[in-house]
Amino acid sequence: MFGFLARRILYMIPTLFLVSIVTFAIIQLPPGDYLDTLAADMGEAGSDNNAAIEALRLQYGLGEPMYVQYGKWMSGILLHGNFGLSFEKNRPVTDLIWDRLGWTFLISLLTLAFIWLTALPIGIYSAVKKYSAGDYIATFFGFIGLAIPNFLLALVMMYVAFRYFGQSVGGLVSPQYLDAPWTWAKFGNLLEHIWMPIFVIGTSGAAALIRIMRANLLDELYRPYVVTARAKGMSEFQLLLRYPVRVALNPFISTIGWILPTLVSGEIIVSVVMNLPTTGPMLLRALLVQDMYLAGSLILIVSVLTVVGTLISDLLLAWIDPRIRYQ
Amino acid sequence: MQHIKSKKGRWSFRLASAGVVAALCFPAFAFEEAPMLKEMVDAGTLPPVAERMPNEPMVMEVIEQPGEYGGTLRRAILGGGDQHNLVRTIGSENLVRWDATWSEVKPNIAESWEVSPDAKTFTFKLREGMRWSDGEPFNADDIMFWYEDVFSNRELTPTWDSNYVGPNGPVVVTKIDDYTVKFSFDTPNGLFIQNMAYGFGYYPTAYAKHYLKQFHIKYNPDVQKLVDAEPAASDWVQLFGLKAGAMDTPLFWQNPDRPTLHAWHLNNAYGSTDRVVAERNPYYWKVDSEGQQLPYIDKITYDQVEDVETILLKVFNGEIDYMNRHVGRPSYRAVLTDNMERGKYHFFDTNDLPASTVNLMMNLTNTDPVKREVVNNKNFRIGISYAMNRQEIIDLLYFGSGHAAQASPQPGSVLYDEEFSKEYTEYDPDKANEYLDKAGLTERDSEGFRLGPDGKRFTLTFMVADVFGVQFPDAMELATAYAADVGIDFQVRATDRSRLIEMTTNNEQDAYIWNCGGGQADAYTQPMCYLPQPSNSVNWARLWAEWGVDHTKGEEPPENVKAIFDAYDEVKAAATPEEQKAKMKHVLDLAKAELFTVGLVQNEPAFGIARNNMRNIPDPLPIAGQLWYPAPYTAQFYFEGGKALP
């Protein structure tokens, strides 16, 4: 077990190194750089402020070759924990992302909880009561949940909230609380808003897991070991949870590896539409304007999370399913 | 409909013009100040209003009537690239300003100015006792700091803004006394005062010496200590750039410590918070005709959003008090009308009227000799112009809003010329064919496309970027079909804005579709469609434009183009507005005869929304690239009742 862990962690190092190079190269692939985007934005001022652009080119060191820029960036991260400077915000990347990462983790963990809390019981129910009215209803909504793009659902819900409930839409708190200190009233206001993104981001995941749970459990329910346990007089509820559900849980565990990166990068469009203070809109904007250190750092963090997440899900799988070998 | 009441002469601050005496006289007039400031004065944390104001504050003409204090103006701002949202509400305080109708230049920071008869020197008289937003005095030394230590320092300013450069070199600024500065050029520069009233005239009065000198190596030999403490800078030049960024970049709005002369001052930096807040500047140097210190409105807040549609929803909910940015698109008008009652707002017009909203620009200095020969034939351009069904474009893409016109001054501008505007704009494929035949493209290939002089199919590649929300890709698709009807092969290549700008500034394109400024009073200073001008975005003869700036660069243009260059030089040499207008008419006449570009559509005025109790709002609001409106007129906006409607 320990050898397995050590080996896996060692493998992570070259993987992440390659990822960082690819990330940096891809961000630089489109022609131009941040200053071209800025110049286009500044064109609105009515004439060309080449004076300011020239000064900024020196300021940001954008004239240097790519490997020099990469070397500076990497040595900053490794030696000083400094992820570089965001051109657009003119602040160190590390100042900018933690706030947003915090919100992202909160929303994503709540979403994960929402998905499991809804998908597990419904999935079990619709497998056990196959072809019942309840199963059909769950299946119907499951497919709708899978089919509707999240951002569309977000738009519809925002419209309904705006049109019929007169709620201020977008963001996690109402405008009057935006720069207020944390109070119970503000917390209550947060709860009034936060269920919406959780529901929107959670539906498709929950729908998928309901279907997977149902299919897996159906495979298990008629296995001989279930029949044996039942023949021995085990209570139906205990039997269900202890044996077939445990086996059917496998996909829940193995998807943890994918869930961690979506914590950071996933649901970008939903976050943009619903105006959430998460990393998604920041990453999108950084990529659009070629704010390369900000974008590179976010992608690097996502990659680390993916690799770590895969490791965690492998370990959990090995723990929950003794049939898996460390090979 | 403009209701500017001139309050001049009702009573005058000129009574108290002599320095120290003024301070003694003012209690008689009893300046009024905002209640929030009065509290601070009573608490002893702020000096009394008379001490905070210059001896002769600027008396601002108001649009409707003197207002009342109070309230928070709520707006929304995009998370990035939206610094002009701030510039156009609180920035833009220059030495001189345009009036609220964009027809006349008036005093602003400068109390008065003089132009020498040869239009080479410009002397500005500043206001004694005027102060920065942190309470420190503002005077000629601040302007000299900008000139000597920022503008003339080639490390800080590697290239100069064109406003401050004549053909033979940059402006020379001299201090006459503490409140008088002189700007001199060695050639006539009659448009200098106009230019100083536009946005980029802000430079000389944006650099507070007492604050910025700590970041300048000339004044602070120990500046390296500050550099070490700042993670985003590695030398003093970078540090200075960070602390004293240009106003049209985000940098300016990311340093709330920098003192300004604006009506409101930022509390926090743009880009890293959910809400940007600007609070009133207690040292603002303008009053209304009743002696009330401006601005009327206490605070402006900008809620950061990621998506324009979110702003719309906020408008419907009454969470935006005044905005034309982002929401003033024709396609939003219907849904905004539906929600007017709910959001308690109404519309106002914005006269953002360029010379052309949709303009086809063929590269007259194309590096391909065959294409160059053809597009330089005026008959070819006339043929293309007749081939375009402008009304169909307007009906299909812009819901019928707009009118067919060449790139020319708009109706309503004093420079409007109906013939220039309407020439060759009717849709007439027969005439188009006739002119294209005259241009020598008589042979056709088996698919019906005309052959160029080299015997091959004549093809122009149009670059198109989806910008400004005016559906350029769709317009180009229609234009391509109209051109094919008369046997001209347009190829369309989609690209993004920055790539397109890079291509056109390097003279790499055949042709592209874009807009063109200079439709109103900005025709004087932004004549980019009337003669070749080096520009980031409008380049239809880049090599000639480069030659026009520096005869050793680019390529010498033909005589007819040189004649326009000469005519425009005469505009710049003219010292009086009347003379300038006559000379500008001449430039436009010469441009009309050339049809350099093929203009398709001029848009109708766009619009903005204002909550129903907002007063003193310019309607129509003149606005243009260089005219950073509604600032500085936001200072006289007020809420009837002292706060935003619930």
UniProtKB/TrEMBL annotation, chain A:
Topology versus the membrane: Multi-pass membrane protein
Key words, A-Z: Cell membrane, Membrane, Transmembrane, Transmembrane helix, Transport
Short name of any one Pfam family annotated for the protein: BPD_transp_1
InterPro entries: BPD_transp_1_N, MetI-like, MetI-like_sf
Membrane-spanning ranges: 9-29, 101-124, 136-162, 194-213, 252-274, 294-320
ABC transmembrane type-1 domain ranges (all copies): 101-317
Subcellular location: Cell membrane
Location, primary (coarse class): membrane
Family membership noted in the UniProt record: Belongs to the binding-protein-dependent transport system permease family.
PANTHER family reported for this sequence: INNER MEMBRANE ABC TRANSPORTER (PTHR30465), OLIGOPEPTIDE ABC TRANSPORTER, PERMEASE PROTEIN (PTHR30465:SF43)
Protein known as: ABC transporter permease
Species in which this protein is naturally found: Devosia rhodophyticola
Automatic annotation (TrEMBL), chain B:
Residue ranges constituting the Solute-binding protein family domain according to the UniProt record: 104-526
Main subcellular localisation: periplasm
Keyword Signal in annotation: yes
Sorted UniProt keywords: Signal
Keyword Signal: yes
CDD domains: PBP2_NikA_DppA_OppA_like_4 (cd08500)
Signal peptide limits: 1-30
Subcellular location: Periplasm
Classification via Gene3D superfamilies: Dipeptide-binding Protein, Domain 3, Periplasmic binding protein-like II
PANTHER family: OLIGOPEPTIDE ABC TRANSPORTER, PERIPLASMIC OLIGOPEPTIDE-BINDING PROTEIN (PTHR30290:SF62), PERIPLASMIC BINDING COMPONENT OF ABC TRANSPORTER (PTHR30290)
Family the UniProt entry places it in: Belongs to the bacterial solute-binding protein 5 family.
Protein name as annotated: ABC transporter substrate-binding protein
Organism of derivation: Devosia rhodophyticola
Taxonomic lineage from the root: Bacteria, Pseudomonadati, Pseudomonadota, Alphaproteobacteria, Hyphomicrobiales
